[in-house]
Design brief:
By secondary structure, the protein is mostly helical. It has 2 domains: 6-105, Fumarase C, Chain B, domain 1 (Orthogonal Bundle), CATH 1.10.275; 110-359, Up-down Bundle (Fumarase C, Chain A, domain 2), CATH 1.20.200. 60% of the residues lie in helices and 5% in strands. The chain is built from 18 helices and 6 strands. The chain has a two-stranded antiparallel sheet. A two-stranded parallel ribbon has the order 3-4. Helix 7 (165-190) runs antiparallel to helix 10 and helix 10 packs antiparallel against helix 11. The protein starts with 14 loop residues before the first helix and ends with a helix.
């Protein structure tokens, strides 16, 4: 069978060009959306009196038969059919005859392709929001188990201040919360119906785009037909959302990698998320965490690839836009799988508190608390900072900690120590004292967790 647009041409495509031009190998995953869009379109055409009720019924019955056959694998496609839109329409005409040719009235492949992608986008991003919510649920549960358990907090990969494990985990909860908010906002802008925009300027038929929007679950029709067929902003925005979230996943995975190392031994990752070495029998490698860390690169590539495709394309439609789907599909698959794997890995990871506690004894984690205590006793912060720095030097020379320094040693640093009192410099005391809003005190971490649970519950209800 000739292509549906062949009447204009004297010769068909060369085989190599036909294969290069085709998108059916990757856009066939849109078949459900393509058929949904066509059912809505022909329903609207029937209601507008453009096709008869019998014609509409024949077309819908034919389309549903095609849907079933694709789903059960009895209907397959070739590159000669070019894309899923032409493949479905060609199959429909071959099955129900000339009435099938009426389906394409008042639409173009330009708006058809966009309605397919937007429908698919809304469904798949909904699943990604579900995966984000599940990950956040796991983080909240793990943080709740560790509101009291101490951990060395780092800056510049150096010991900084004592925090709690729950506090550290809740920092990631906030990152993924922003990911949810970004994606939700992107979905709001994407949830517009391009069907009826035609090739670029609308149609001469008296169609009802609000009706197809209602049938397909879109908020509104797109406002401008030319923009509707040439807009890929929502995909680029999604790829940006995915890139930021994958960066968050990568940061978390990186911490798992070094927390799992022999130097840290902070965590024990379940065997089901590790592999061994082909040569070294003692190895238990955090391969899944490393893969999560590495997957971000391909999503960054998806974003940069589509930005580059779009940068020089004039209005309205260009064949370049066929390159929008593979990066979107890849980022969707990668992001969703990464979220699911990370949630499962966190759930099955145990914090080795005995090993963590050993690390709390080094790095002068209470230095800031010592300086704050001096400030509260009337010494300006910059002087307090200098005094504590000298205390650190003395302790390093003597291989001891602040609590080991004798009063005369302190007075040798600053005479005011004669009348100063020393604070509770235990790790527990330092953590418990940080009750400022957003701080690491267990009471404050519990508040953060409760706030997070309430927010997540409201988000899930709104999905």
């Amino acid at each position: 069978m000739a292509n549906l647009w062949d009447s204009r041409f004297e010769r068909g495509m060369d085989a190599i060009v036909e294969e290069f031009n085709a998108s059916i190998n990757f856009d066939k995953r849109l078949y459900n959306c393509d058929i949904d869009g066509s059912v809505a379109h022909v329903t609207m055409l029937s209601e507008a009196g453009i096709v008869t009720g019998d014609e509409k019924n024949a077309i819908v019955t034919g389309l549903e038969g095609i849907r079933r056959d694709i789903a059960n694998g009895s209907l397959t496609f070739t590159v000669r059919q070019e894309d899923i839109h032409m493949a479905v329409e060609e199959t429909l005409i071959s099955r129900i005859g000339a009435v099938g040719k009426k389906l394409h009235t008042a639409r173009s492949r330009n708006d058809q392709a966009q309605v397919d992608v937007r429908l698919y986008f809304m469904r798949e991003t909904g699943a990604i929001l579900d995966a984000l919510a599940e990950l956040q649920k796991v983080i909240l549960e793990k943080a709740s188990e560790n509101t009291e358990n101490l951990l060395a907090g780092f800056t510049h990969m150096q010991h900084a201040q004592p925090v709690t494990v729950g506090f550290h985990l809740m920092a990631y909860f906030q990152m993924f919360r922003r990911d949810v908010e970004r994606l939700t906002d992107t979905r709001r802008r994407a949830n517009q119906n391009p069907l009826g925009a035609g090739a670029l300027g609308g149609t001469t038929f008296n169609i009802n785009r609000h009706r197809t929007s209602e049938l397909l679950g879109f908020d509104v029709p797109t406002e401008n037909a030319m923009d509707a067929v040439s807009d890929r902003d929502y995909i680029i925005e999604f790829l940006s959302d995915a890139s930021i979230s994958m960066m968050h996943i990568s940061r978390f995975a990186e911490e798992f990698v070094y927390w799992n190392s022999s130097e840290f031994r902070y965590i024990s990752i379940d065997d089901s998320f590790c592999t061994g070495s082909s040569m070294m029998p003692q190895k238990k490698n955090p391969d899944i965490a490393e893969l999560l860390r590495g997957k971000v690169g391909r999503v960054y590539g998806d974003l940069m690839g589509l930005l580059t495709v779009m940068k020089g394309t004039p209005l309205s439609f260009n064949k370049d836009f066929q390159e929008d789907k593979e990066p979107m599909f890849d980022a969707m698959d990668t992001w969703k799988a990464s979220l699911t794997i990370l949630a499962a890995m966190i759930n099955k990871t145990e914090f080795r508190l005995d090993e963590i506690n050993k690390h709390l004894a080094s790095g002068f984690l209470s230095a800031t608390d010592m300086a704050d205590s001096l400030v509260r006793q009337g010494i300006p912060f910059r002087e307090s900072h200098e005094i504590v720095g000298k205390m650190v030097k003395l302790c390093e020379r003597n291989s001891c900690d602040f609590t080991d320094l004798k009063r005369e040693e302190l007075v040798s640093i600053d005479k005011r120590f004669d009348s100063l009192s020393l604070p509770d410099l235990s790790m527990r005391g330092c953590v418990n004292a940080r009750t400022s809003f957003g701080g690491t005190a267990p009471s404050e971490v519990k508040r953060q967790i409760e706030t997070g649970k309430n927010w997540l519950s409201s988000v899930v209800k709104a999905m």
